[in-house]
Amino acid sequence: MLRLIHTADWHLGHTLHGVSRDFEHERFLAWLLEALVTERADALVVAGDVFDSANPPASAQATLYRFLRDAKQRLPGLAVVIVGGNHDSASRLSAPAPVLDAFGVHVVGGLSLADGGEPDWDRLIVPLKNAAGEVEVWLGAMPFLRTADLPRSAEGDDPLIAGVAARYQALTDCLRAAAQGRGALALTGHCYMTGGQLSELSERKILGGNQHALPVSLFPADVAYVALGHLHLAQAVGGAPHVRYSGSPIPLSLDEAVYPHQVLRVDFESGALRDVQALRVPRAVEILRVPAEGPALLDAVLEALARLDLPAGLEPAEYPFLEVRVALDRPQPALRQRLDEALAGRPVRLLKVTASYTGSGNALADATVPAQLDALAPDQVFTRRYQSLHDGEPAAELMAAFHELVEQVRESG
């Protein structure tokens, strides 16, 4: 048997409303290391978005390499496979690969080309061995595929989807040739699949937006398991229990506090998938929303804050994050000051105040709903600007070009 731990979307270097998540990431990685030991894992797969940005802080990079050092010291035989996501810089992630290869850590930041201009498929094929030293799984370590990675000759109803399918088909063909009928086939992916449930405000719509969501059918039928990253809500996709998002290990937005976070324990035996189980990640910092049921008038909010039951004996890094939701009938310039005074000296960190207005006195037809810029996705800003100059929605070709420009900017750091 071979036991693999599947995780993704660490987003090392992430901040939440200006607050560093370093403490939570350190706690998660310490827990993950113990889980790898306790579960007697043979392999660890990280399916993209290791870092939160293409140019992560030095502290985030140091966190990754400390974890890899500790993991290999505790489990010398552990195979580690890391692929790049849309937040990662492919070149930055791959830069230490020649050194890490020597320690059993296989990093594929992006799709690299071999002589002749074809992808270097050999770099993406990783044989995973069980405790007896036998190859039990042949893993195709596919990173996030950018538009430039796709074959221009792909044909189909949607050339982009056809291009991704062609890349996966070619990689799977290479896996079959390497396996020669011995061992299970597995793939990684960092993408948005049809039927996947987004968690609000966190995942970016990649590959041209939701109209380019990828179908589960692009994975060949003989692939036993697909380890996905990109969506932060853990889930199986499209009714296929072997195609899985592990989800992120910590909440990456306040909205993500409502569901548990986990990694997946995946067992293979006799060339087939045997079992998939979720291992829940303990939450190092709680996220509170007051009132829990939605916005309330200020007096009721202040009363709820006074009743807020907060744990004692916490270190400042462990203080819960708090969002306060207030319904106002008129502007309150001193709102933040009043909330800060209500929470003074208490073990909690007020990260966000969400104010909603109960009425403006205007006719309903004249009412407008203001939106804060940081609450809008880049494509929403672009669409609003387009509509201020033209009638209707921007054309699909224009949106696709805009998304490609956005990805180029992110890759440049």
Report mean pLDDT, rounded to a whole number: 88
Q: Percent range for helical residues? A: 25-40%
Number of strands: 18
* Cα gyration radius (Å): 23 Å
- Helix vs. strand class: alpha/beta
Shape: globular
- In CATH terms, the superfamily of the largest domain is Metallo-dependent phosphatases
Provide the succession of SSEs. Answer: EEEHEHEHHEHEEHEEEEEEEEHEHEHH
Distance between the termini: 42 Å
Provide the fold topology.
Layout: E1 2-7, E2 15-16, E3 19-20, H1 22-38, E4 43-47, H2 58-74, E5 79-83, H3 90-94, H4 97-101, E6 105-108, H5 121-124, E7 125-129, E8 135-140, H6 159-179, E9 184-190, E10 223-229, E11 235-237, E12 240-245, E13 262-269, E14 272-280, E15 287-290, E16 296-297, H7 298-307, E17 321-328, H8 335-343, E18 349-357, H9 378-389, H10 396-411
Parallel strand pairs: 1-4, 4-5, 5-6, 8-9, 9-10, 10-12, 15-17, 16-17, 17-18
Antiparallel strand pairs: 1-13, 2-3, 7-8, 11-12, 13-14
Name its key features.
six-stranded mixed β-sheet, 18 strands, globular, single chain, Purple Acid Phosphatase, chain A, domain 2, alpha/beta, 413 residues
Description:
This protein is an alpha/beta fold and 413 residues long. Helices cover 28% and strands 24% of the residues. It has a six-stranded mixed sheet with strand order 6-5-4-1-13-14. About 4% of the residues have low confidence.
Task: Give me a quick take on this structure.
With 413 residues, the chain is of the alpha/beta class. Helix content is 28%, strand content 24%. Helix 2 links the parallel strand 4 (43-47) and strand 5 (79-83).
